[in-house]
Amino acid sequence: VVYHTFYNINNKEEKSQIGPRVSTNRGLSWSSRGCFGCTSAVAGNFNPADRVAFYAPMAQNTAFTSTNGNVVYFGTFRLYRTATRGMAWTGLGASPDGFGTDLTKGNGVITAIAASPQLIQSVTPPGETVWVGTSDGNVQVTNNAGAGSSTTFTNVTKAPLPNRFISEIAVDPGNNQRAVVVFSGFDISTPATPGHVFLTTDQGQTWSNISGNLPDVPVTSVAINPSSPNTIYIGTDLGVFQ
Q1: Using one digit for the tens of pLDDT, what is the confidence trace for 194-218?
Q2: How many whole angstroms separate alpha carbon 70 and alpha carbon 63?
Q3: What is the β-pairing status of strands 232-236 and 239-241?
Q4: Which of 56, 121, 136, 167 would staple 8 via disulfide (CB 3.0–4.6 Å)?
Q5: What residues pair up with 21 in beta bridges, in sequence order?
Q6: pTM of the complete model beyond 0.90
Q7: Calpha distance 104→139 (Å, rounded)
Q8: What string of DSSP letters covers 113-142?
Q9: C-alpha 78: how far from its chain's center?
């Protein structure tokens, strides 16, 4: 089972295209799973009026291995979840229109999603930890992403995080309290809060700038080595750093 997206756009700009395409035969054929040409908001789908990034983020939660495949999350300015290979989508969190909480500062879009493969077994059903980053510098985290409209998010945006575009988030596969967030842009845009790579070990209660000796260039991607979680890789406009 394979998922991919390419450009996304809402129906306020032109014909809507929000969501992934899914193949169940290793890419031999593909089906659109989302809001492709829809004009009205219908339960179980994306809201076609949602603000959405041209390259919208999507993430799997590999803790789920049922016959339907992994749980998948998709971001507009809200976080959506599917457990049915995209046949039905649920917007997470409370909202006036029932399609999920706005996780931005009010005018951005979600640009990064990271799901922890460690389910929280102390609750029923097990809790799902998901991190979200936005184009306007918001970082939010939830520990009950499977709760639909009852999902609650904690905004963990605080100093020393810069108010810039969040490129990607990586969560430690063995510790859902530990995550790395990377930022695009240049320090000149946020001179009081410089840096591009930030680490938390307490689920966003505190952050450390671990940019170290990196050049002041946009950081676009991050990965934590699952066999050695103190080893972090980033991709930048100049290349790859460890």
Answers
A1: 999 999 999 999 999 999 999 999 9
A2: 7
A3: antiparallel
A4: 56
A5: 4, 32
A6: yes
A7: 8
A8: EEE-S--BTTSSSPB--EEEEETTS-EEEE
A9: 10
Residues in the chain: 242
Provide the pLDDT for residue 66.
74
Sheet bearing 139-142, strands edge to edge: 110-115, 130-134, 139-142, 154-155
CA-CA-CA-CA torsion for 145, 151, 156, 157, nearest 10 degrees?
Answer: 100
The contacts of residue 170 (CB under 8 Å, 6+ apart) are 114, 179, 180, 222, 223, 224, 232
Q: In what order do the strands lie in the sheet with 208-209?
A: 166-171, 179-183, 197-200, 208-209
Q: Which tokens belong to 14?
A: 């032109």
Report which residue type is found at 37. Answer: G
> Rounded distance, CA 81 to CA 34, Å?
11
Q: What is the CA radius of gyration of the chain?
A: 17
Residue-wise pLDDT for 101-127, tens only, equals 999 999 999 999 999 999 999 988 889
- Token pair recorded at residue 149: 């409209």
- Rounded distance between C-alpha atoms, residue 127 and residue 200, angstroms: 20
Question: At 48, which amino acid appears?
Answer: P
User: How far is Cα of residue 212 from the mean position of the Cα atoms in its chain?
Assistant: 25
| 40 to 16, 44, 50, 172: CA distances (angstroms) | 10, 12, 11, 39
